[in-house]
Write the structure tokens for this entry.
Amino acid sequence: MQKNDIYEIEITGMTDEGDGVGRINGFAVFVPYTIIGETVRIILIKVLKNYAVGKLIEVIIPSKSRTKSACADFYKCGGCKLWHMSYEEELLFKKKKVSDCLKRIGGFDNINIDDVVPSSKISRYRNKSQFPVTPEGIGMYAVHSHRLIEMNDCLISSEVNKPILESVNYWMKKFGIEAYDELSDSGLIRNIYTRTGKSGTLVCIVTNGQTLPRKKELIDEIINCGTTICGIVQNINIGKTNVLLGKETKTLYGNAELTDNISDIEFSISPLSFYQINKPQTEKLYSLAREYADLKGHETVLDMYCGIGTIGQFMARSAGKIIGVEVVPQAIEDAKDNAKHNGIENAEYYCGKAESIIKQIVNRGAKPDIAILDPPRKGCDKKLLDVLSDIKSLNKIIYISCKPSTLARDLKYLNDKGFAPQKITPVDMFPRTPHIETVVLLNRK
Ligand code: SAH
């Protein structure tokens, strides 16, 4: 078996990343853009020790779930993975992904997992987008690479991006403003990042340096592009890095804080703070978390990894007290402002790492009844889970995860520490991509 060999294989599984998996004499071959049950002709493009990667040449027997991609750039762009299948097939894949991780990593062989809560929108659902700017143009990166595919629209993102990208592109060409070049670490404009909410769209221009020439002309172009712009900011991010945003943000126009609401709670969101990207699904996700919390009104609720305070404030009126913890200082400032703005007086906030701050909170005499954990992809630090399991008053944990593998690892750890998973509900926040959110209710045994 070697590179450039051609084979006909049947697809029998899927990787966590959404690629089809087939076998050649027992040896695993990953083939992007294929579906379980299909027979396909492939050419091997990589043969490694434990697996090979094949490129699809032809679908010989298609799955009933195969669809024509609604996105013209799908097969070039690295953003989405699943436009070639029906949404029903995607939901089955996502449920299986959660179930496989819980079995393989968590050791939960017979645990019940609810059907995935589907997204009401499968295109145009993202309220946040980022488009790299390179000497090759503005667009998206190809799969697993920094090769730019020029495009001024993205089917899972808001329609507002197109006129914004066109106006920045026009301004760059007209005034000879250079794009940042990763190879030579030179040039100015690195990225265009947008976030859309109730108050309009916030445009963030990420630059490799402080100086931004032709600022007035840039502002004029953007605010006259035909969509509601609530603010324009410049974020300074200097040097060779894959991180999108630097620490410093300057307001060029309007308000740097975007406003949005989830149900009847209104939130102010600063550019560096985390905010869920699919709003209708966020309402469903938080409602499920609130249902699992089953608050009676007296409880103290820990909102760990609270971001701008969203989940806790969504529950605050049914709880005794909310204690929020978050590592990004701007997000904590937003959380405090949001509580005030929403008339929520029973929420307090701490800035720092959840695993370090939790001890302080307990030492101050807090007696939490419920903990909500909503960590980033890498999951929770064991130190946090250790302290939580030692809190006598704590009887319930609601774990919201955006990565099934780290969720499974942490659920196993918590199970050994005395908290058993009772309900597991995946919620699709990210249609057409392999990502899946999961809400889990755990009770003390
Ligand atoms: N619950 C919020 C945010 C979830 S995203 C919401 O639903 O909007 C995860 C958050 O955890 C981010 O805001 C991130 O800044 C924060 N974070 C990452 N590592 C952390 C840590 N070690 N301790 C506390 N917060 C952390």
Q: What stands out?
A: The radius of gyration is 23 Å. The mean pLDDT is 97. The CA atoms of residues 243 and 367 lie 38 Å apart.
